[in-house]
Amino acid sequence: MASLSGLCSSFPSLKPNNKIGAELSSFRKDSLAVSSRSSSSFKHSVAREVSADLSKTNDVAGLKKAKQGGLEKDPKALWRRYVDWLYQHKELGLYLDVSRIGFSDEFVSEMEPRFQAAFKAMQELERGAVANPDEGRMVGHYWLRNAKLAPNPFLQVQIDKTLAAICDFADSVISGKIKPPSSPEGRFTQILSVGIGGSALGPQFVAEALAPDNPPLKIRFIDNTDPAGIDHQIAQLGPELASTLVIVISKSGGTPETRNGLLEVQKAFREAGLDFAKQGVAITQENSLLDNTARIEGWVARFPMFDWVGGRTSEMSAVGLLPAALQGVDIREMLVGASMMDEATRSTVLRKNPAALLALCWYWATDGIGSKDMVVLPYKDSLLLFSRYLQQLVMESLGKEFDLDGNRVNQGISVYGNKGSTDQHAYIQQLREGVHNFFVTFIEVLRDRPPGHDWELEPGVTCGDYLFGMLQGTRSALYANNRESITVTVQEVTPRSVGALIALYERAVGIYASLVNINAYHQPGVEAGKKAAGEVLALQKRVLAVLNEASCEDPAESLTLQEIADRCHAPDDIEMIYKIIEHMAANDRALIAEGDCGSPYSLKVFLGECNVDELYA
Ligand SMILES: O=P(O)(O)OC[C@H]1O[C@](O)(CO)[C@@H](O)[C@@H]1O
């Protein structure tokens, strides 16, 4: 009997299935029928059926009417519109241009009451109301940059103490006061951050945006349960593993991907003869599994993650601040930038509130139902990860099936993007001429290089002038073809401006969520995938047990997929069992006696050895 696991590299070819094809085409017809109507008016008729409270629907007459008028094209009128709507935050040096979004005055007036309601909800949230009703939680990321706003003295002390502890710890690590036990350098030189989602995206964005060229500690990330990815990060560290500070970040302290990353890293430490506890730091909620592990094992340090800070808004908590501080980023400046932006976005005057202006544009551009995608294009390499960061912030916050009244609304705004002008040579072609299903947000940075470093690569023109030209050219070319855009401009990429950008979008998401009446602070949809993944792993254990039992009875016995499914008492899960076998065979953990994975019915599988311990487990 040969071990033929390699045969699994051939996959079943996809054959047309008439039934599925018919269902698909009728589904497409339905969706075309929806989009061929005014998407907002369709939505409204549904909303009317389920809720008598029109203030909570997307019934904005001005939206549809003004959209029919098209975008302003007269250069003089457009310039007036630019000047009229230009938002400037003087101290932050931040501008917001919404002139290339075509909202009308009528639309703005109609939206005004909703904005006032959103501002009120935001004030209540900041005062400590339970703004995440499903989870019964306060939402307090705004307090992180101004502890005085926290609703009680206990929280204020908690915030201030944690910030002081972060700064102290970072200073001690950088100065070598806290050092790894067995590193020749005598100090920590690397950070390995283990975390996922909100426990990775902020730190990744900030590292890319703000870490100096030669940081005191360099950072790497394990943000997945991909074994090859983990091996790669550990291999890249090489002997520097001995001088690596491992920061394990998980609010819940029980996220499987993060736990797996930790276990893999701990194994690497054991194999290198290193004591993990002397190099491990945990950032998590008090008494979580991770917190208890770190405490019992005596890790170097533990920092709290607060119940009232969501993962995707945790960049200004220990989650983002500790890694940033260790890389030499001025975290107090990040907090100042965020706090200044928070102050500005508390304004109840729409025109003076940049977050509200963003929310207004999003509502207009997407008909208040996410009918268009948000393409985020920073024209600055160091802001590359901003779009990925915003993807979670916006999509996990706004992508909701039900509104706060329990109506099915399937809200959300899709976010993607990379950077300009690189994307000019990738997908801008489609944006300019192809399917019109997006609006763009340009992020412009005025300062090209630090002072004194610029030079003209041709008379009167620098490299940065080209970047500027590409941004302006793309903005104009898109607008000429009726593609709307927002432009956010900052002077430089600094801790202060990055803090401000994060705060701007956090608030815009919160305000927009109020406009469309959804809970921005929970993520019930993520649970379904997590639960299903758990079920797959449980099924895999049953498959292994069945194969083991068969091997113990007769080492040469091989089973068909149907036999495995029957013995697992899971005949309906035969497709998943097939996928499990395919994956295990590809990783030499099950053997295929006959057949290949391209012909599932031909497969006969066995384990090759009997594990008696497991048999009686
Ligand atoms: O910090 P944790 O608890 O490990 O969660 C990581 C991420 O997982 C999610 O809960 C989604 O599964 C995100 O909201 C969160 O940022």
UniProtKB/TrEMBL annotation:
EC code: 5.3.1.9
Q: What is this protein called?
A: Glucose-6-phosphate isomerase
Q: What is one process in the GO biological process aspect for this record?
A: gluconeogenesis
Q: Which InterPro entries match?
A: G6P_Isomerase, Phosphoglucose_isomerase_CS, SIS_dom_sf, SIS_PGI_1, SIS_PGI_2
Single GO molecular function: glucose-6-phosphate isomerase activity
Similarity field: Belongs to the GPI family.
An annotated GO cellular component of this protein is: cytosol
Pathway per its UniProt entry is: Carbohydrate degradation; glycolysis; D-glyceraldehyde 3-phosphate and glycerone phosphate from D-glucose: step 2/4
Give the source species.
Answer: Gossypium mustelinum (Cotton)
The reaction(s) catalysed by this protein are: alpha-D-glucose 6-phosphate = beta-D-fructose 6-phosphate
Q: Which UniProt keywords apply?
A: Gluconeogenesis, Glycolysis, Isomerase
The positions making up the signal sequence are none
Query: What's its top-level EC category?
Result: isomerase
